[in-house]
Amino acid sequence: MTPGTIYEAIGGLETIDKLVTAFYKRVAKHPLLIPIFPEDLTETARKQSLFLTQFFGGPRLYSEERGHPMMRRRHLPFEITPSRRDAWLECMAEALTEAQIEEPYLTAIFEKLTMTANHMMNTPEP
């Protein structure tokens, strides 16, 4: 762990795992998100855990396993509309609360994820 990182401040991998579990529990039930996610979310959640670990300043697990994140490119096959972005962020906001991530990290994390979610949008609303 790099000292002074969000990853370290929120409790490392244990907290990332709580966050990812809480998030995908919601994704699996969200009518706007179900169509763009696989039925079995196990591998998707594992990759998300690797990514968030790295994204928040922890070990570069995602890059070591999968190369450069290139998140927009990896998401291009999926229709990510503004409403799906909002649904994704809603699920993440609830997951951050469930994982008991406190301020100032809650706001910092949500801001970083909001910027990323905005960047992932690739399809206008129908």
TrEMBL record:
InterPro entries: GlbO/GLB3-like (IPR044203), Globin-like_sf (IPR009050), Globin/Proto (IPR012292), Globin_bac-like_CS (IPR019795), Hemoglobin_trunc (IPR001486). It comes from Ornithinibacillus bavariensis. GO terms for molecular function: heme binding; metal ion binding; oxygen binding; oxygen carrier activity. Belongs to the truncated hemoglobin family. Group II subfamily. Gene3D superfamilies: Globins. It comes from the Bacteria. PANTHER family: TWO-ON-TWO HEMOGLOBIN-3 (PTHR47366:SF1). Its cofactor is heme. This is Globin. Keywords: Heme, Iron, Metal-binding, Transport.
